[in-house]
Every structure is written in C-alpha cells, then in structure tokens.
Amino acid sequence: MTTTATAVAPATAVAPATADATATAVTRAGVGRHWETRLFSDPDLPGRRWAAPSYDGVDDLLADARGRLVRVSARAAYQEALHGRALLVDIRPAAQRAAEGEVARHLSPLVVERNVLEWRFDPRHEARLPVATFDARVVVLCQEGYTSSLAADSLLRLGIRRATDVVGGFRAWREAGLPVAS
Question: What confidence tens digit (pLDDT) does each residue in 114-168 have?
Fold first, then answer.
C-alpha cells in the first residue's frame, strides 16, 4: 500500500494522489494532521462512497431501515424465543440493562452490545459467534425499538436475511408482562 502526504487548505479538497494510494495525510486549519481515506475524499474514485444514500434526518433513516424489516411484537418475539425459533439479542449497554432490567434467562437471550453486533453475527468474520449463520432468525432488542431497527437492518445488509427487531423494545416487553430476570 502506498500513501501520499498532502497539505490541504481548509476550503480545498484533498489533492489527487497516485492511483494506488489508499490514504492521505491531511492538515486542516484548527484540526491538525490526521489520516483521511481517499474513499471519502476523492470524488473521482469509483465505488459506493458518493452514491451512498443521504437522509432528511434520523427519522428518514429510521423509516428507510424499517421499510426492509418485518418487525415483531414483544409477544411474538417471546413466542419465537420460547420455542427456540429465534435468537433474542439484547443490544443495550450494561448500564441500561442494569437500570431497566433484562429478559429472563430461561429464554437464553444473547447480550451483544450494539458496538460489536455486526462482527459477532457476520458468518464470514473471525469474531463471529458460533450461532452466526446467514439463515439464523435474529430478533434484536433495544430499550424502545429505535436502535434495534437500525441494528437489524445492518444485519440484513450483511446477508442475515431473517433479522428483525422488537416493536417498542424492552419497554414493550416489560409492559406486556413478559418474563424478566429477577
């Protein structure tokens, strides 16, 4: 891999580097020196970076993600987990689980915090869990059903075609009187 160092003024784009360069050192006023990948800084390179969708706010992003999901109610998620038809994956941080509660242990929920979810469920990745397969039924649970929609969509995009999330999250689970850890 070849890299090229280029000084950049605040209002100018990164100067084109050699064709095999993958990163450019950039100095911006008030920011200092950092590495910027050409993937995002060179509009002449082919690839997906400029064609990536943009959204009119986070609600638009969420609606787009949910448009690909067949979301399930807390009761439906419970039934799937109870009968071993789905992996119930709680992506909430430890502090939130401690404060709000957890799904009952007899349902074998997997706790996989959001920041590592894709690595644990991508069947191609070395950090995957043993249960990670493309045909796994993965039902993602967050606190209120927002973050889980984005997470489940991310799993869908990785090829886990049966991924979805729980409408209303753990709050809906608790309000439905479903089993929680004591």
Answer: 999 999 999 999 999 999 999 999 999 999 999 999 999 999 999 999 999 999 9
pLDDT digits (tens, 9 = 90+) for 85-113: 999 999 999 999 999 999 999 999 999 99
CA distances from 68 to 31, 121, 136, 161, 163 (A): 39, 18, 17, 10, 10
pTM higher than 0.70: yes
Element (H, E) at 5: strand 2-5
Give residue 116's domain range. 58-175
Of the chain, the end-to-end C-alpha distance in Å amounts to 54
User: Measured on CA atoms in the order 118, 119, 124, 130, is the torsion positive or negative?
Assistant: negative
Contacts with 111 (C-beta within 8 Å, 6 or more apart), sequence order: 89, 90, 97, 102
Q: Is 154 helix (H, G, I), strand (E, B) or coil?
A: helix
Q: Say which DSSP state 166 is in.
A: B
Could you tell me if 12 and 76 lie in one domain?
A: no
Domain assignment of residue 97, yes or no: yes
